[in-house]
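Lab meeting prep.
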Amino acid sequence: MKGSEDRITWFLDGMNKRFAIPVYQRKYDWKYENCRQLYDDLVKIAKNDRQSHFFGSIVSEVVPIGGKIVYHVIDGQQRLTTITLMLLAIKNLIANEKVNVEENRLDEQIAQRFLIAPYAEENDRIKLIPVKSDRDALYRLFGAEEDYDRSSNLTINYQFFYDTIMREEVPVIDLYHAIDKLEIISITLDKEDNAQLIFESLNSTGLALNEGDKIRNYVLMSLPAKDQSHYFDTYWAKIEKCTENHVSAFIRDYLSIKQQITPNINNVYKAFKSYAETVSLPIDTLLSDLLRYARFYEKLITCKSEFGNQNADILHCEVIDSVADRYIELLHIPDGKFDNVASCKYTVPDYWTIGAVYERLIEDSFERITAKEIMTVFTSWISDAISNYNTDFYYQPRDYLKECFQQGSILMI
């Protein structure tokens, strides 16, 4: 592993460079506030004439392909993509004569140094290669405005930069020179470096990955670059589609079936990694099994199966309906005299909302969750307190409910 101090513009500069975002990475997801912060930082650099500003690290594997050098970006794709959008906005503003700069042909200079390889084949000219789901939206930004994909986060952030820079809070040339002062630590990995471990250690900053993102990276990052697209298209993309992109929740249920223990929602990645290392299956076997269960999961969440009219039974498979009566009978719970619905002071939540309160409380209170822990909560004093809609206890924050449960009483706020 080699690390060096660099300017973001030096890192981008060069017609033979390409920056590929591997398929295991998530989509581009910087929000307005992230772009606003970057813009404000650049304005301060310009106004205060700062000489440098640290912009974070970019970790990559460098793969020579013919006459090109392809950087497979392991960490830093959000920053790299955002700077590309800002440079593209500046280039287009100058080309469209929306702003004036004294430097001759600056738009062409920006394009040929940082954005495109002008002498490459048409399908290889744009230097940044996003994940497949972002690629079309980025490429459209290099064409006619009427063809932009307005629903894409890439387009939304590009348009923010375009509109904001056009107002010229600072001269465009000063903003461009401010970008040149952004410093990064460029880290390139050697063949013997463990990219997954390095990625995990760096994921404590920036926009946090969810558990499903981490699992996708863990599964695909260990594969050779030439195999990653195949496994992503054959398995992972289909898993995301079947689960409607709720991969974290799906794998949590998958592990519950496989291990008979439900992991904490915040520890699904660690639980899956431990499971994968324990079963030690070939990667295609593991992904095939995940996809098989994802297809079952799809039938449950969409209420579509091969059973025709019996789909109504799947739709009505609410845990509170199917389990409550059996537990009442099993535990010989007598009928109560107090009607906590008819006599309550506050609005009664629906079954799913009540279930969510219990689910969060159980997850927050226990590291390992089995039937014993679930029954501990449902048979404790806090169950009566939550169900008493003549108080506002039910509506309190989850941290407060957890603390009350651990202390064994309702605490004074």
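Slide two material, second protein:
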Amino acid sequence: MTKLNDKIKICSKCLYSSSHPLGITFNKQGICSGCEVHEEKNILNWNYRLSELKKLVKKYKSSKNNYDCIVPVTGGNDSYFILHVVKNILKLNPLVVCYNKYFNTKIGIKNLANLRIKFNCDILFQNINQNSVKRITRHTLMEHGNIYWPILAGQTSFPVQTSIKFKIPLIIWGAHQGLEQVGMFSHLHEVEMTRRYREDHDLFGNDENSLVCLDNDLKEEDVWQYRYPKLNDIRANGTRGIYLGNFIRWDPAKQHKMMVSKYNYTPSIFKRTFDTYDHTDCYNFMNLHDYLKLCKHGYSKVTDHVCREIRHKRIKKDLGISIVKFYESRKPEHLKLFCDWLGITEKSLNFVIDRFKNKKFWLMNDLNKWSFKGVSIYLKTNKNKKNYSGLKNIIFKKGKPFNKKDKYTFFGKGI
């Protein structure tokens, strides 16, 4: 374990530090809880666990040719693999649900259309009035440095709302973020979807009930569609959300490569990471949203991708450090596109961004001039830090770049 100071520690295996916002612990050898739980992937009997999953979902199969379960999807991430498992391995008939994030890319829309065709599924979209989404985004950006609150809130509430509305108790998700990154749970705990995790971690302690107050212009009509169903309704319907990652050895890179080959999933090239598979559907996740993460927490998505690849033994830690240094400092793209959509200037956006630069990781040298002092600058490799030999071997080359002239691809109401 590496110690940057008395407060910040870094895992001796991966690159996660004790400042991880989800919470992380270290054993006597300096190995983080995320790496410890990851080792379960190499020792658990996954054939047995899959058989247990099949037993679990069997009782939810409809006897009337109705939907067996709900599967939340996007035009990126693990959507294809989840549906592949649900349809072809578990033999279930899902109702697919998708929250319209409005930051849609053409690649993401293409992937959604292709997903519907390849898996022959019914898709139900949630389109919240775009003016309400903008008002909420302005508020959460100013108050919390967060442009993704409406998306995270919608993606976690809409499936539960649909479960109750259509009386489909089972919701099937991919992997649990807290388990995969920081080892918050063991696979053996078979943790399920909860309101508390949504509020504490997905929404950073700010659920929809906290938004409407006297010091902003938000109204009940803006937030009501984000409301998580009442506990009594959830219990009466028997709604539960399970994670496939507890029953299947989860490996996103390997799974995505299979989805590209098998179903023609389209990856995309990003400026701030080597991974071309995640968040292909969004202009902002790997750009402004990721940069705000760097400002507040001292690390960005490329560190998540590198830690995953180190744990799966596809790269060494030394190369991982070089990769993070290579990508982390790159400027986010499509800022003007976001500002035009929200109705603010880039100067105003930069002012807000500077407000949320965590003084633990950033040093203000002069007006509007900052030096990054995050975790990665303390990490040393055995090579010169400017030597990125071997980097080309890990970059996922297949993928289409976003066209800088493209705009958000809107569909549904609120256009």
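Talking points for slide two:
Residues 8 and 19 are 6 Å apart (CA to CA).
The longest strand covers residues 94-99.
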